[in-house]
Structures are given as C-alpha cells and as structure tokens.
Design goal:
By secondary structure, this protein is mostly helical. The protein contains ten helices and no strands. The protein starts with 10 loop residues before the first helix and ends in a 5-residue tail after the last helix.
Amino acid sequence: MRKTSPDGATPRQGQIRQANQSAILRAAERVFARTGFEGATMADIAEEAGLPKANLHYYFGNKRELYRAVLDAVLHDWLAPLDAITPEADPAQALGSYIRLKMALSAERPDASRVFANELLHGAPVVGETLHTELRAMVVGKARVIDGWIAAGRMAPVDSTHLFFTIWAATQTYADFDVQMRAVLSQGQPLTAADQQRATRHVLTMVLRGCGLAP
C-alpha cells in the first residue's frame, strides 16, 4: 500500500510539488526583481520557471499570492540563521555564522534581497504586519541574548538592536547595490568568488571587532 500525505499525495507527488513550488518561487524572485510587482506577469514567471502558466495558478492562486509567498520565503531564509544566537553560544561564532550566511544569501540569491528591498521602499504594503510582529519579536528576543552576553562580559557594549541593522545593511548591500560594487571592483563584471570572500572577511572583521570579538 502506497503511503500518502494528509492531502492524499504520494511521496513522489509530494517531491514533485515541492520541486515545482521551489522553481516557481525562484523564478518569481528573478522576475519581480527585474520588473517589480506591477510589471511582472504570471506568464513571465511561468516562462522563467519553464513551467506551464496553469501550474502557477495551481500552486499560487494569483500574482499577489505568489508575491507574498516570495517575500515570506525571503524573510524566513534571512531569519533562520538567527537560531544560532542563543545564551549559551559563543558570541564570535554565532555572529560570525550569521554574517557568513547573510553574505552567502546575498551572493547566491541577490534577486531575493532586491525584491524585499523594493517592497520596503514602497512602504511594505504586503509584509508590513509581518515586520511589526514576527520580525520585531525575533529581533527583540535576539537582542536580549546579546545584552546578556554584554552583561556577562563576553563582548563589548554595543546597541544590540542597531547591531542587527548594521549587519543587514552591510550584507544586503552586496545584492541591492551590486552594480555599484561591480563598477568599482571589476569594471562592471560579475564579482568573483575571491571578491565575495574578500567582502565577507571585511564585514566579519568590521562587525566582530566593533563588538570586541576576534574575527
């Protein structure tokens, strides 16, 4: 007897669904980053994903629903690395790991950062509530952890909330303003792996030293 999920799908069908949804979300990131929400069409996204347009409507009812799913996925992927910031963690390792992962996401999925930045520049009409609830609660909780490290003498005194703003700005700029970076670093050519490693070392050094920690 074949095993099925609660929605009646077999494991194989579930894998296909997950793969299709992932392909659609990544394609939507690229299209929304290029054209914005208003300029994007479901047909453009379907073509980018290499799937029939009907598949998009099967998984996501309309363009706004898909756009919201893209933003939710980006925010989830950005917040997940914060799990490493716990009271018992080593401050340099936890913050260093978070910075490395944020830099890697900027390098590997720059369109995700650009879509999110564009949403915020327009006043966060879709994710505003999430910013005020989920994001705020996460930052408040992790700031308390950092304040605890400071009180225990495990790192230098810093404004724990603004530390997150600094990390976000320093890491996401390599995606949001990569045209500027490429113009200065490589005459407009895509950044190399060596460029990205150099950037990561710099951000790590600046942030960790500012916190009184060894890079």
